[in-house]
Amino acid sequence: MSICLNMIVKNEVDVIERCLGSVKDHIDYWVIVDTGSTDGTQQKIASFLKDIPGELFERPWINFGQNRTEALQLAQDKGDYLLIIDADEILEFEQGFDWPSLTADAYDIKTRLGNLDYYRTQLVANGLNWYYEGVVHEYITTDQDHTKQKLIGATNKPFRDGARSSDPNKYRKDALLLENALLTDPTNTRNVFYLAQSYRDAAEYPQALKYYEKRIEMGGWEEEVWYSLYQIAVISEMQNEDWSYVLQAYLRAFEYRPKRAEPLYRIVLHYRINRQYVLGNLFATNAVNMPIPDDILFVETSIYRYALLMEYAICSYWVGNHEAAIDANNTILYRRNVPANVVQQVIANRKFSLNRIYHKNEAAIPKKNKIIVFVPFYNPGHFLDNCISSLLAQDYDDFEMIFIDDASTDNSHTKVPVSDSRVTLVRNKERMGGGYNIHTCLSQYCKDDDIYAQVDGDDWLACTDALSHINQQYNQYDCEVLYGQFRFANGEYGWSQPFSGKQAFSKLRSSWVCPAIRTFRAFLYHEISRQDPDYSCMKDKDGNWFKEAMDVALIYPIFELAGFDKVRYNDRVLYVYNNENPINIFRINRSQELTNHQEISKKKKFLQYELL
């Protein structure tokens, strides 16, 4: 299967290499038609693609439809499929992307323009008689029966900085072309829709509203009709129309296509800005769980991924529903690919609600707590250097380090700074596993009032004041457990989350808690023996210490013994979890981790020690 790149260009010397560079490794041939460049675009193309066979044609400009169609015709028999892209765009391929077995006649590729996602046909089988329809906002079609699918693994990204996009009169020129086209064919719904779009983008709103209404009257493709309804509401709000009119316009759009949350989001946003939080919360509650629709036209994906949840969380806070606010913020932070500025804002917003549910516990105890840092390791290699360096760099002085070498074979024990008076090294003669080693540290080296903190040997602390911060948090909140957020070794934000309230806390065994760094007063571990003398909570059904899923085997009883009011969450990243270690236990024995977790979750819950 071969792929032929197919383009038309004009005066794109500043952007063409960026475009070609994004697809160069994924094409076998190229046919590019220049329609009158005077800036050297032709030479740039020939030079950049000199290692790939292809052809550069020069043709006079007529219009988009005719010139693109001619480019398709010139590429006949030059590849099994034609890949079509504009010069001011790039294709972003997922890591490791390779062309799948292509069986459809046409493939739509997702375009991501800011917060908008939409699909456009950019890959077509070369055996059909394709042509472009339209003088502007043209689209590819064929009179032959054909199949179409969405292409997974590639996203089109427009920059809008090419020669045409740089023209300040672009949208007015487009509108004139479309007006003239409608004189010939007044029933063309697509031209009416994009005429409205062009007037909107040219800020000629009365004309835009006129043609959006006309497009609605014409009926047809529901997505265009819905978007016209939606834009009428958006423009009306921009022009400060009476809110009752705007509200009805948004509801009209929502009623027409209830799978689209954008109108509800705009309503919620209005009420939040105007501090009408009860009404904002009412509309947000009905929209917050709506999934991203499978529509292909202008989906504002940011609304579904985080924006609506943010508004819901803010309104929930102001109406006093702090559990809902925390849950919503947790959901955002658990999702990947949320912009960094949004992440920071959500963390700050969540803290307001956390302070409301915990504020009664705050204290100010000027105390320097003894911290016992437990470092278990097995063949950590050079990662242990990072761990040790991060510990020795701490600006807190009242702490000890207990290193337990679980029968490593890489001589990593020689890295442990045993000459440091704060360091104790224990070497197991055989592999004992996580449960046994944790029990050894807590039962033999920790006094009741000590703070236990675990840093695995292939992980490390994220900052030099991590232990100082832990001490400060215990003093400020008079807590007995402190856990918090981490980051992965590649810099990605972690998955640790606070409990939204006592109800969520009571269900902690139904979820995988990811606390890092995990710290607690050592007496809590000693309290386990009062309800479970054999520490069976940390052992499998055969009585052996758990080796996998030890984090939850330890944390579940510790959290339950402390109780919700004595467990605190720390937003600041203090810990780096090294998921890049090739012998990371979750990587090499994930199935056993999950099996153990299921067994641990079913074990008997512990009573809060203060209630005994």
TrEMBL record:
It comes from the Bacteria. Residues 7-92, 373-498 form the Glycosyltransferase 2-like domain. Coiled coil: none annotated. Pfam families: Glycos_transf_2. PANTHER family: GLYCOSYLTRANSFERASE, POLY-BETA-1,6-N-ACETYL-D-GLUCOSAMINE SYNTHASE. Belongs to the glycosyltransferase 2 family. WaaE/KdtX subfamily. This is Glycosyltransferase. It comes from Flagellimonas ochracea. The lineage of its organism: Bacteria, Pseudomonadati, Bacteroidota, Flavobacteriia, Flavobacteriales.
